[in-house]
Amino acid sequence: MGLREQFTEAMKASMKAGDAATTSTVRMILAELKKVDIEARPKGIERVEDGEIVAMLRRMVKSRRESIALYRQGGRQDLVDKEAAEIAVIERFLPPEMDEAAMEAAVRAAVAETGAASVKDMGKVMAALKAKHGGALDMARAGPLVKAALAG
Q1: Of 142, 115, 141, nearest in space to 126 by CA
Q2: Pick the residue with more confidence: 55 or 16?
Q3: What is the separation, in whole angstroms, between the first and last Cα of the chain?
Q4: How many other β-carbons are positioned within 10 Å of the β-carbon of residue 51?
Q5: Secondary structure of residue 87 in the 3-state scheme
Q6: What single DSSP character describes residue 98?
Q7: What is the tens place of the pLDDT at every residue in 53-93?
Q8: Distance between alpha carbon 92 and the CA centroid of its chain, in Å?
Q9: Are 137 and 103 in contact (CB under 8 A)?
Q10: What's the rounded Cα separation, in Å, for the pair 27 and 74?
Q11: 116, containing H or E segment
């Protein structure tokens, strides 16, 4: 079952269960997905693939984590709780992320595969990682690992 179908099923289940918070978050995900689909149309893409949907979900989680930090500074625990609940719902649709050891192994394999020799080749290694591991790899966490692997 693709992510779009998972969103639809989650929406139905949350509405039947009367879970307003989950329903609201899934509606927010669907609205963001519609926006991403519309933005892709000039490129000749009618509906984005699951890989792009995973990236969208990660952006949504990142945005909420940044908001949580700001709300904590402002002493707004009610908004912190709301954002944390939204993150929990969004993360249900994300594939499990690689642990640190698996990520380091993937970086070493990508460096060897691309024949990268210096930090100048970082783009090639990052592209290979994204192509091979997609949603399971957090590119923000992989960047420093790639840089360290290429530096020494």
Answers
A1: 142
A2: 16
A3: 42
A4: 13
A5: helix
A6: P
A7: 888 888 899 999 999 999 999 999 999 999 999 999 999 98
A8: 11
A9: yes
A10: 27
A11: none
Our separate counts of H helices and E strands in the chain read 7, 0
Position 131, amino acid: A
Assigned token pair, 1: 């079952």
Q: Tell me whether residue 43 is exposed, middle or buried, using C-beta atoms within 10 angstroms of its C-beta: 0 to 12, 13 to 18, 19 or more.
A: exposed
Locus of tokens 């595969």: 113
Provide the 8-state DSSP code for 152: -
- Write out the two tokens for 48: 């984005």
What is the C-alpha separation between 130 and 143, in angstroms, rounded? 11
Contact between 134 and 94 under an 8 Å Cβ cutoff? The reply is no
pTM to 2 decimals? 0.72
Host H or E run for residue 126: helix 122-133
Q: What letter would DSSP give residue 48?
A: -
